[in-house]
Design goal:
alpha/beta, Rossmann fold, three-stranded parallel β-sheet, elongated
Length: 87
């Protein structure tokens, strides 16, 4: 499927232990990716996927619905303005 070259994007919703390998294959082909959480098992693998997506100039989106919840947006803003001190 990945070798067809006509995909608009891929959603990876497999067991989390398989995410890194599949995501790497997708991103290496320059295909935008939605990766369900948990992203990967190791922080270094997460950083590697982010860096790969940046190099390939394709979106890497983690399936995490709370980005769009108003309470979370307000909390992020409060943290950014230092209301909770240095984290």
């Amino acid at each position: 499927m990945l070798d067809r070259g006509d995909l608009d994007g891929v959603v990876v919703a497999t067991p989390h232990a398989t995410h890194y390998g599949i995501a790497t294959d997708v991103l290496m082909r320059g295909i935008p990716l939605i990766l369900e959480k948990p992203m990967v098992l190791r922080a270094r693998d997460a950083r590697g996927l982010v860096n790969l997506a940046d190099r390939q100039r394709v979106p890497l989106v983690i399936g995490y619905p709370y980005h769009f919840v108003e309470q979370h947006a307000r909390l992020r803003a409060r943290i950014a303005e230092g209301a909770l001190g240095q984290l």
